[in-house]
Amino acid sequence: MNISFVGAGVGSLYAALLLTKRNPSLHITIYEKEARVGGRLNYVEFENGAKVDEGPTIVLLPSKLKQQLIEAGLSEDEVELLEVDPLYRLRYQDGTSFYKYRDIERQADEIERTFGEGDAFRRYMSQKKEEYQIGFNTFLDRSYASKTELFEPKLLLLLMRLKAYESAHGNMKRFFEDERLRVAYSLQTLYIGGNPYATPSLYGLIPYREQEEGVWYVKGGYFSLATTMENELKRRGVRFVMNATVNRVHVTDGVANGVTVNDEYVPYDAVIVNGDFPLMERLVDGVTPKAYEPSSGTLLLYFTVKGELDLPIHQFDLPNDFEGSMRTIFEDGKLSEYPAMYTFNPSRMDETLAPDGTSVLYVLVPVPRKLEREDIEAQGTIDHLVGRIEVLLPDFRERVIEMKVRTPMDAERFGLFEGGSFGIAPKLSQSAAFKPQARPFSKIERLYAVGASVHPCGGVPIVMIGSQLLVKKMEEEMGAIHRDDTRSVSSM
Ligand SMILES: Cc1cc2nc3c(=O)[nH]c(=O)nc-3n(C[C@H](O)[C@H](O)[C@H](O)COP(=O)(O)OP(=O)(O)OC[C@H]3O[C@@H](n4cnc5c(N)ncnc54)[C@H](O)[C@@H]3O)c2cc1C
């Protein structure tokens, strides 16, 4: 059986690992329009040879990730996971700052010291523990055959119990009095491109899990996970075709039977699309594309600098009026004057990224989509952000060797739907059964999908859960394909 993947993002790479582990006789071809695998899980390279992660930096769900790698036949020592503790520092414009620690009692003390709400934090952790188990098993780790499944009374009751009708930030009002704490435990919806004031509290379980399992780091950079997967797939005989754009997915009589790649038709028994789903849908014969709402855009600055940087590995630098800043970005579609800023200083724990005597720094800021560098420069945003780094590192500007910038329009040109960094927006009408599934069209057989805009959600280990659901679905259906040889393109 010949199977092709459109795109070499982590969703494809991991699904191909699972498929080759379980069905070694499969012939798999992965088409990737770029020269490198990994998609968003990639790196930026500087002239001095330094490298820094281009997209993902925070390894969440480390135990799940380890389990996933083992399930796909990779040994644990192929990917070295290092714990980052404290998880990160939160700095507020008013001068307050506090750390998140994995140890619950240490965290409660830190919150008591800073906000006088240590007990509220303990209550948060015990209530969210219960909610997480329900949320994970019921809504994340399963596929949906139809939208109506979500209306089963049992699921509706669970959604009510999880208060899915509240926003992630609104839900924090049940726990914390101080607005800065509410923000500290809801801003994580931004990890998947959602406004904490509008994203359902179901996604607000991310900060709970982050606190419980901690934040981790892949030695060599998160991007090295993609290279590890690629090398293993090559060892298993998977064919990678790089610089190869798939322009069409062919469907005949309700069955996907091949792709057009670089203007040439190539037959396949099954096709899995991994590019951003709203754009992939447009390639499929006979499908009328649906309207989707994209996630937020991001402005990314990458630096290589002289010397070490006295900054925590992860840091959030937040405005006093966080709510106003979110409104400006998500509702008014404008750049915020004092945006939330995330910095990542991996050189602090990984000397392999930059030549001796230099470091790398990554800066991410949520911004509206559709912005070009000129729009951002016209508002002085890059200068403003560098100025904020200089509050902590006064000579930062002079130490910069090289800076690279990535805008929402760069993301759109790369192939992210409308420049949204994280797939389709995390809102109820685009979640769970309402999200494209591993088998996205009931009327098209042998066409499958995986990736950040496909159920369950964006984020590396979560996309990999999507790969697991995809492989399960394919295996259920592949039995039928084997029995019905008349449908096999190899017999055409
Ligand atoms: C700035 C940023 C920060 C992030 N931070 C984190 C984080 O800290 N932690 C975390 O877990 N996650 C994070 N994420 C999310 C995570 O990176 C994604 O959810 C995940 O990598 C998406 O994988 P995917 O399988 O959807 O593939 P993608 O990364 O979308 O890759 C799809 C691939 O398909 C290719 N392709 C598209 N169209 C075609 C075509 N027609 N023909 C051939 N090839 C095609 C593309 O070139 C691409 O390589 C972040 C993302 C971004 C952008």
Automatic annotation (TrEMBL):
The keyword Acetylation is annotated on this UniProt entry: no
UniProt keyword annotation of Lipid biosynthesis present: no
Gene Ontology terms for molecular function: oxidoreductase activity
EC number in record: 1.-.-.-
Pathway assignment: Carotenoid biosynthesis
Domain Amine oxidase, first and last residues per copy: 13-457
Keywords in alphabetical order: Carotenoid biosynthesis, Oxidoreductase
Family, per entry: Belongs to the carotenoid/retinoid oxidoreductase family. CrtN subfamily.
Protein name, as recorded: Phytoene desaturase family protein
